[in-house]
Design goal:
The protein has about 240 residues and is an alpha/beta fold. The protein has helices at about 20-25, 65-75, 95-105, 120-135, 155-170, 210-220, 230-235; strands at about 30-35, 35-40, 60, 85-90, 110, 140-145, 175, 205. Strands 5-4-3-6-8-7 form a 6-stranded mixed sheet, with helices on both faces.
Length: about 240
């Protein structure tokens, strides 16, 4: 099949970037994007100690919003403790320009072939996790990040500090970095972590064993009409006491 057309619309931040200009940008150490903003991709970000995330891959679920992808890759690859070789961008379908963009930032990619419809995100999450663990066969954990978030500089520090909890407590099925009630007037203690029962969302870390032994084989099929994967994870009974 022929490649899908570029998703970069005339109104996107990439409207002035052709495939050729992206290729030329990939040859530069200092890449200049529209708006004269520069992205340094050859300087490693500050590391964290201890770094429990050294062997944990991170998959970024890319949406059809390239402007968000630029911002996310910039913030993610420059976050404290980031290891670019562990970062993978997953696309729902083939598109040449986003792949070039991922190469500019020095991260890996996953290409899927997902048809349209209400189940696109559900299928994208499942296929991305399956392929991610295939790319990192020794990884015991993985982090999933939704494609429209701006990443905090301490995201890897947060997951590094909470990974031991996921490792030692069998009643946890994931660690989430997203709090839907995390407003300034209610989330003023950076050392406070909540234990709650609502489904994970937007940025979360999961065990390989929980995905392969529980989630993968029970993931909703198209004919099940359960397209909201997060609601399914919270209400399907799969948590089994977790």
């Amino acid at each position: 099949p022929s490649p899908s057309p570029s998703p970069f619309s005339s109104s996107s931040p990439f409207s002035s970037l052709s495939s050729i200009s992206l290729f030329l940008l990939s040859l530069l150490k200092l890449r200049t994007l529209p708006g004269n903003s520069r992205i340094v991709t050859d300087v490693e970000p500050p590391q964290i100690t201890p770094n429990n995330m050294a062997d944990v891959p991170v998959v970024l679920i890319a949406r059809d919003q390239p402007g968000y992808l630029v911002s996310q890759l910039h913030s993610l690859t420059n976050a404290d403790g980031a290891i670019r070789s562990n970062i993978v961008v997953s696309f729902s379908k083939y598109a040449k320009d986003p792949l070039t963009l991922a190469d500019i930032f020095g991260v890996k990619t996953i290409q899927n072939n997902i048809s349209g419809g209400e189940s696109v995100m559900s299928d994208h999450i499942r296929m991305s996790l399956d392929k991610l663990f295939g790319q990192f066969p020794t990884a015991e954990y993985a982090v999933v990040i939704d494609g429209d978030l701006k990443i905090s500089t301490d995201i890897f520090s947060y997951f590094s500090q909470t990974l031991p909890l996921l490792r030692s407590d069998d009643t946890l099925y994931c660690v989430s970095a997203w709090n839907s009630h995390g407003f300034i007037n209610s989330s003023f203690d950076p050392s406070l972590v909540y234990r709650y029962e609502t489904p994970p969302g937007l940025a979360w870390m999961i065990k390989r064993s929980f995905f392969t032994e529980v989630l993968k084989s029970n993931w909703p099929r198209l004919d099940m009409k359960l397209f909201d994967w997060s609601v399914w994870m919270g209400k399907s009974g799969l948590a089994n006491g977790r």
